[in-house]
Amino acid sequence: MCLSACFIVFPSLTFTLCISAAILLFIWRRRTSTLQSIPGPRGYPIVGHMTMLGDAPQEALTTWSKQYGSVYRLKFGVWPVVIVSGYKTVYEALVKQGDTFADRPAFQTFKDYANGASMSFHTYDASLKAHRRVTSSALKNCALGHGKTELTQALIWREGLRLLDLWSNRAGSFDPCEDVTLAIAGILYSLCFGHDRLITDDESYVNILTNVNPTTEQFAAGNHVDLLPWRKLFISKHSHNKNVERMRWMTALNQEKFDSLKHDVDASHIMGYMIEESKKAGNQSLNAEQLVNTTVEFLSAGTETSSTTLLWAIIYMAHFPEIQEKAAKEILDTLGPDHLPTMASCARLPYTEATVFEIMRLTTIVPFALPHCTTRDTRLGDYHIPKGTLVYMNLWSVGRDPHSFHYPEDFNPDRFLIEDPDYGLRLNRDALRRQLPFGAGKRKCIGEVLGKTQVMTLFTLLLQRCRIVAGKGKIPSLKPNFGDILKPKAFDISIEMKNSFE
Question: One MF term in GO for this entry (predicted)?
Answer without folding.
Answer: iron ion binding
